[in-house]
Amino acid sequence: MNCGSAVTALTLVSCMLGFGVGAQQEGAVSVWDGVFTEEQAKRGEAAYLQECVNCHGPGLEGGDMTPSLVGGVFTSNLNDLSVGDLFERIRITMPLDRPGKLSRQQNADVIAFVLKANSFPAGATDLSRDLAALKQIRIQSSKPGR
User: Fold this and answer.
1) Looking at the 3D structure of the chain, how many domains does it have?
2) I need a surface site. Which of 34, 112, 114, 132 has the fewest CB within 10 A?
């Protein structure tokens, strides 16, 4: 292979790889894409008020030793993580006095409520309780320019 054809081949491969990355990013799902329903957020609010309010407060504001679940600090701490990461954190560590007490559906519902409280838009489909599906949804603290 001569130098000219090697450069052409390298350029072609670079273009193909660049196209693949762009296509993957365009198809990525984020919390800005309506990944939960209003009904699910209402179910999540009920579960939150029953299981989470004592530590995280009625306005999700947190307390002395408990982090807030709303606002810029909360969303920036989760920025670029997946909803699956948040789901697993909740599943393994919450409620603090009885970790793992909530069902997978209740965890998904509570996350829907927290997303709604952080002004992420609702959509037409419930947030999944399947970890693999949740790992595909990115948490982005600010709305991406589209």
Assistant:
1) 1
2) 132
Mean pLDDT of 118-136: 98
Assess whether pLDDT exceeds 90 at residue 144. Answer: no
Cα separation, 139 vs 69, whole angstroms: 14
Structure confidence at residue 145 (pLDDT): 80
Taking the C-alpha atoms of residue 80 and residue 83, their distance in angstroms, rounded to an integer, is 9
Q: Is the pLDDT of residue 90 over 60?
A: yes
For residues 133 and 76, what is the distance between their CA atoms, to the nearest angstrom?
Answer: 22
Q: Which residues share a beta bridge with 29?
A: 137
Backbone dihedral angles phi then psi of residue 137, each to the nearest 5 degrees: -105, 120
Lookup: tokens for 131: 């970890």
pLDDT tops 60 at residue 113? yes
Question: Residue 30: which H helix or E strand, with range?
Answer: strand 29-30
Please give the structure tokens belonging to residue 136: 């595909």
CATH number at residue 91: 1.10.760.10
Give the residue numbers spanning the domain of 65.
29-138
